[in-house]
Amino acid sequence: MSFNNLDTLYRQVIMDHYKNPRNRGQLEGDHITVEMNNPTCGDRIDLQLKIEDGVVQDAKYEGEGCSISMSSASMMTQVIIGKPVEDAIKISHMFSDMMLGNDADTNEYKIEDLGDIQALQGVSKFPARIKCATLAWKAMEQGVEKE
Known about the structure:
Strand content: 15-25%
Strand order of the largest sheet: 1-2-3
CATH architecture: Alpha-Beta Complex
Protein name: Nitrogen fixation protein NifU
CATH topology: Sufe protein. Chain: A
CATH class: Alpha Beta
Largest sheet: 3 strands, antiparallel
Order of helices and strands: HEEEHHH
Number of domains: 1
Number of strands: 3
Oligomer: single chain
GO molecular function, one term: iron-sulfur cluster binding
Helix content: 40-55%
Family: Belongs to the NifU family.
Domain NIF system FeS cluster assembly NifU N-terminal: 10-132
InterPro entries: NIF_FeS_clus_asmbl_NifU_N
Low-confidence stretches: none
Distance between the termini: 43 Å
Mean pLDDT: 90
């Protein structure tokens, strides 16, 4: 697949998550809530996590922001649900490395194994947008630390 075709596919994946968000809404019952915002661009997220026995049982979010920010939140919730907290943190660190242009693979995970998240790789070329892409991930890290 050529670079242009891959770039187009990645844009389509990002826009799909933006227009058809996964796990958007409110959790019922006991859960952890983390509110974060990116004051430089106005992105805002309210992330809710249900963690039981060290596993992310459910995750939902509400917020507003650019397509990168909201798509990243949608993708992140899809990936962390059902994962042990330690794995969610490892994936978050891997995502941060990818955003910074560092080697993003770990022993346990490779970026191509994480579904739609690889569509955000191109954001690393736009330093001003990295904070948009990482907002939900930082909220998740803060949330699991509360557990």
